[in-house]
Write a structure and sequence with these properties.
Helix 1 packs across helix 3 and helix 3 runs antiparallel to helix 4. The chain has a two-stranded antiparallel sheet. It is mainly alpha-helical and 139 residues long.
Length: 139
């Protein structure tokens, strides 16, 4: 009998996620994390930018170690503030973070091993465009 989540091996999903995270970290995660950290530090220069900096640091952690975690909509969010925050984020810096994700996806898809990582990078590109109103949770 097989376990649907772990492929028949107890803890298999955790092991595969950890292997994926290590490969991701070496190929793209560290560079993308630096991009989010730079965006966060620049946002912290102004008082108005602090919420954007906090969001950038949350995304930096997700970009560094994405497997075995997922992004869900935050049900307690204020929709109008999320929309305003996402528009400002997109204009100020979200687009270049999304471009970085697309660049790394193109780099990763060259190899067979990198194809799943490229897909993960493209999913994160969407999050880089509109992060407000979402949160990263363990899978």
């Amino acid at each position: 009998m097989t376990n649907r989540q772990g492929g028949g091996v107890p803890g298999g999903r955790l092991v595969l996620g950890t292997v994926g995270n290590v490969i991701w970290l070496l190929c793209a995660g560290i560079w993308l994390m630096f991009g989010y950290v730079i965006a966060g530090l620049l946002a912290f220069i102004t008082i108005i930018g602090i919420p954007f900096g906090v969001q950038a640091f949350k995304l930096a952690g997700y970009a560094l170690w994405p497997f075995n975690r997922t992004v869900v909509r935050n049900e307690q969010r204020d929709i109008s503030l999320s929309i305003v925050g996402n528009v400002i984020w997109l204009i100020v810096g979200g687009w270049w973070l999304a471009v970085a994700h697309v660049f790394f996806a193109l780099f990763l898809v060259i190899t067979v091993v990198g194809a799943p990582l490229a897909l993960a990078s493209l999913k994160m590109a969407g999050l880089a465009l509109a992060p407000f109103g979402r949160e990263v949770v363990p899978r």
